[in-house]
Specification:
- By secondary structure, the protein is mainly alpha-helical.
- The chain folds into two domains: 1-130 and 233-264, no CATH class; 133-231, no CATH class.
- The chain is 69% helix and 3% strand.
- A two-stranded antiparallel sheet has the order 1-2.
- Helix 4 (70-87) packs antiparallel against helix 5 (103-129) and helix 6 packs antiparallel against helix 7.
- The chain is globular, with a radius of gyration of 22 Å.
- It starts with 20 loop residues before the first helix and ends with a helix.
């Protein structure tokens, strides 16, 4: 499996791949809502493990794919956790000059870590197990105008394309000069070139896409037909229903036990 494919859909014989795409989108929103309600790291940690288990089990996503996305999943959450270590009030646990870590920060920091990491991981699960065309079709069937659904489809479709652009630019710069042992100033200049090149290529792709849509008369008809259809099954509701029950149970545990255990 190449590095360029870790943010793209792959056809698998898994339960999540066969789940109705719009239902999986609702599931991601349910997870996000639950994580924003949670006030203790215990609930967030349990939810993260459940999403990870769902990805590996029901989604048949390989640990390698999860590991490759770890920098994004854990990196952003870790930075947010460190930020809350230092800004939240409470009794000082550790200090170095003007930097102080409080007892409340040590509790609330992991809350934000699991909040962001779990939401990002669940979004990746949606991308890994859902064909963007099927997602667009399911959203149109749910009542969304196909013009807006196609906009979401393009946004998701461009994610792996942008990733390939980044790798192509990095390979081109590696051929022209070794950056591994260069200074920070030189690396910063390379980063500027990456951003500029990717931005220009992205604008060019957007312009070509707009011309293609105009040539094909996109938006002319009120309704649109699809070569590949998707079908809703009643069993697909199991995923959001179980998620709601788990979230309700965790929220109840927070109110009755875990807040008292953590001294909140």
């Amino acid at each position: 499996m190449s590095q360029s494919n870790f943010l793209s859909f792959k056809e698998r014989n898994s339960t999540l791949n066969g789940t109705y795409p719009f239902i999986k989108l609702i599931w991601v929103f349910l997870v996000a809502i639950g994580l924003f309600i949670f006030q203790t790291p215990i609930s967030g940690g349990i939810m993260f493990l459940l999403v990870l288990t769902l990805a590996l089990g029901a989604g048949k996503i390989s640990p390698v794919e999860v590991f490759r996305s770890g920098i994004i999943v854990f990196g952003l959450g870790f930075l947010l956790m460190l930020f809350h270590f230092f800004i939240n009030p409470g009794e000082v646990v550790w200090s170095l000059g003007f930097l102080t870590i409080t007892d409340y920060g040590l509790v609330i920091g992991p809350v934000f870590f699991f909040r962001l990491s779990t939401i990002v991981l669940s979004s990746f699960v949606l991308i890994w197990t859902t064909d963007t065309r099927d997602l667009m079709t399911s959203m149109v069937k749910a009542g969304m105008p196909y013009r807006y659904a196609y906009t979401i489809f393009l946004a998701l479709r461009f994610l792996p394309l942008i990733q390939k652009e980044v790798e192509a630019v990095q390979s081109a710069h590696s051929i022209r000069g070794r950056a591994a042992g260069s200074s920070f100033a030189h690396r910063f200049k390379l980063w500027q070139r990456y951003v500029f090149t990717i931005l220009i290529n992205g604008l060019r792709k957007a312009e070509v896409t707009a011309d293609a849509l105009e040539c094909r008369g996109f938006g002319y008809s009120e309704k649109r037909t699809y070569v590949k259809d998707v079908h809703f099954k009643t069993a697909d509701l199991i995923l959001p229903v179980i998620t709601v029950l788990i979230l309700a149970g965790l929220i109840y545990m927070e109110q009755t036990s875990w807040k008292a255990l953590l001294g909140l």
